[in-house]
Amino acid sequence: MELKSYRATTMHEALAMVRHDLGPDAAVLHTREVQSRWFFGLVNGPRQIEVTASCGVNVPSRLPARNTYEEERGSDDKVVLRHDGPHALSPAPSRPQPELHGAMQNQLTELQTMVQELCRRSDAPCHDLPEELFQLFTDLLDSDLSEELAREMVERVRTKTKGLHLDDLLMVKARLARMIESEVRVSGPIQITPGRCRLVALVGPTGVGKTTTIAKLAANYHLKEKHRVGLITVDTYRIAAVEQLRTYADIIDLPMQVVSTPREMREAVGRMENLDMILLDTAGRSPKDEVRIQELRAFLTEADADEVHLVLSSVASARVLEQTAERFAAVGTTSLILTKLDEATGLGNILPLVRTSRLPLSYLTNGQNVPDDIEVAESMRVARLILGMEG
To answer: What pLDDT, on the 0 to 100 scale, is given for residue 19?
Structure first.
């Protein structure tokens, strides 16, 4: 025996679904009013009618049979009724036999009890969200968090808050921001050690803003902090890439070297070892290009980089960011720089990135202006950006 359940907004619609699926001889075993659920069972939806029916039960159908009577006219021009349905009309007693009626009623009662128990067991426990937590949930979705991650965040804040201040959305968001802050690691700014040259390389896919970010760092460390800074580029693949960095070097008044082989890299670093810091600009690499990734690794090995910052665009999806960070881990990345914050519609994609990569954030950039539009990453600032509490 096969039982099927159907849900609709009205009993009429539910019965129509039973008739369409199981036919007019289906037996309705159980009906009840249920509460539909949205957003993984967190939010109440409209109430619905649930009908459980079967076409394999030997009980009278609760559905009215289709009207298949047709009018026919005989030779004497009198109207005659003919029934073409699946069950031909046959004489029947006016009242069912007591024994048969009692057996059928007992069978129906047992079936209804069984169906009710199955329905009770299938209902997963759900909890209604207070209005403020529902608002928080929708705000997290607007910030580009996935539904799964947004639900996790809402459940965490509800558990930690334990019913206190749940009616204050700002306080709930502040509590959640502190939770996220504890997950976001930051490395702070690049540290210059007197008497020692520090070599910092920027790597990443194409188009994420590595060259512009290097120009911002060089300008700030040379013009504002008065350190001796040099530039090296191996980006000889992209058209006008060398000219772009050379223009920045001329404006800021910095020495610059262009290298195309690992051996030239070693020589260029040796010529600049008397400086306080060397910033290394690398060519954009596709995360899927294993050959280019290994080539980049060879350059960085010859340079003996102290820090390798992976530059990523905050406009990319969470999945792309995670996969890119995973592929570039082969070159020895030590921290993350997130660019183009001003172009992103939401920054919820940052949280999965910092969780999976386990790399600290070093800098954030939010525009093209040199030397401005760059800031040292701070945990609370990043958490508030993820929640959409700051622009």
So the answer is: 83
Do residues 256 and 245 make contact, with C-beta atoms less than 8 angstroms apart? yes
In a domain, 188, yes or no: no
Distance between CA atoms of 230 and 253, rounded to whole angstroms? 10
Q: Is 231 helix (H, G, I), strand (E, B) or coil?
A: strand
Give the chain's end-to-end CA distance (angstroms, integer).
60
Task: Give percent above pLDDT 70 in the chain.
Answer: 74
In 137-276, beta strands by DSSP E:
198-203, 229-233, 256-258
Tokens standing for residue 150: 């947004």
Considering the domain architecture, whether residues 68 and 110 belong to the same structural domain is answered as yes
Tell me what pLDDT residue 243 has. 85
Residues 210 and 61 in one domain: no
DSSP 186: B
Four-residue CA torsion sign, 117, 123, 125, 131: negative
DSSP 370: S
User: Within a domain: residue 193?
Assistant: no
Which tens digit of pLDDT belongs to each residue from 320-336? 999 999 999 999 999 99
> For residue 140, which of 159, 127, 153 has the smallest C-alpha distance?
153
Domains: count for the chain: 3
Give the pTM.
0.66
Return d(Cα 321, Cα 208) in angstroms, integer: 12
